[in-house]
Design a protein that fits this description.
Length: 306
């Protein structure tokens, strides 16, 4: 069942169309990647979901009904442009934001202490925000975003400025929140992160939704029937055996006992014959399809060559 859907959402600013008839459906309990180049319309859509602005046309549904102002309390939003009050103490400011989310001081303090320990910043409770590094400040903002345990979490470039260790910590926490029942919208330019944590994606380009679906399905759907074969034997004999069956793209230097060839097989029903020809000619070690990365698909889609 979908937690959030957008139907034919359009938003214009003067002569600029930020969103043009965008529709998407975000399944409950998933990590949903919202992708696109700068200026594509991602942030505008996020602001509409958060009711910071309203669409000119189209509708957004949350939990099966049209979204209402009080639904914002069920959403946690970490924007790309972040900011904390530099002169306030860290714990004091975190409590302030937690109270705005409806938590009692007692509950907020208990939850914050747990999160501060988990993120290794418990000693910074009485420090001023201006004393924090960028990464530590972002940890505080992440904690405040998730503290009230919202049904929907929206992270806009959450790994920006993090070193690999802390970025991995955040990834693990995002996946743990999903496993506990939260639905996550994850807006990013980092395609490797998409493959690691996203279940579904929508790619917005020039204000329009140009690609949506499950990550695994999209990668397979946009494969080009490219295969890699690892073998031991005479390359010349193998090339001759495959000459009329497929296109040989490139070979590779011998690694250990085995060589590799990349092949393009035009039709799916020809793959079995190619495998048989390889197996009859050389010692076949492996035969695998090369699935395009989300980065490859992103570039091809934005350039209009999918």
């Amino acid at each position: 069942m979908d937690l959030l859907t957008a139907e034919h959402v359009t938003k214009r600013y003067a002569r600029h169309t930020a969103l043009d008839d965008v529709s998407l459906a975000i399944p409950r309990g998933s990590v949903y990647g919202l992708l696109g180049p700068n200026g594509a319309g991602k942030t505008t859509l996020i602001r509409i979901i958060n009711r910071i602005t309203a669409p000119d046309s189209g509708r957004v549904f949350f939990g099966g009904r049209e979204i209402r102002p009080d639904d914002v309390a069920r959403i946690g939003y970490l924007p790309e442009e972040r900011g904390l009050y530099k002169k306030m103490k860290v714990g004091e400011q975190a409590l302030f934001f937690a109270r705005l989310k409806g938590l009692s001081r007692r509950d907020a303090t208990a939850r914050l202490k747990q999160w501060f320990v988990k993120f290794g910043i418990e000693n910074w409770w009485d420090k001023k925000v201006e004393e924090l590094s960028k990464g530590m400040a972002q940890k505080v903002q992440f904690i405040v975003t998730v503290l009230h345990e919202p049904e929907l979490l929206i992270f806009d470039e959450p790994f920006s400025g993090f070193d690999p260790i802390n970025a991995n910590l955040l990834k693990e926490e995002i996946l743990a929140l999903r496993d506990k029942g939260a639905t996550v919208i994850f807006s990013t330019h980092n395609m490797s992160s998409v493959e690691e944590i996203c279940d579904h994606i929508t790619l917005i380009n020039k204000s329009r939704n140009i690609l949506s679906g499950r990550v695994d399905d999209i990668r397979r759907r946009h494969g080009a029937n490219i295969f890699e074969v690892a073998y031991r034997g005479e390359e010349s004999a193998l090339r001759q055996a495959l000459a009329d069956r497929c296109e040989i793209l490139e070979g590779a230097a011998e690694e250990s006992l085995y060589r590799t060839l990349k092949l393009h097989v035009e039709h799916d029903d020809e793959v079995r014959g190619v495998i048989a020809a390889v197996n009859e000619t050389v010692e076949l070690r492996s035969f695998r399809e090369i699935i395009p990365s989300m980065n490859d698909i992103f570039i091809r889609a934005v350039n209009g060559i999918l």
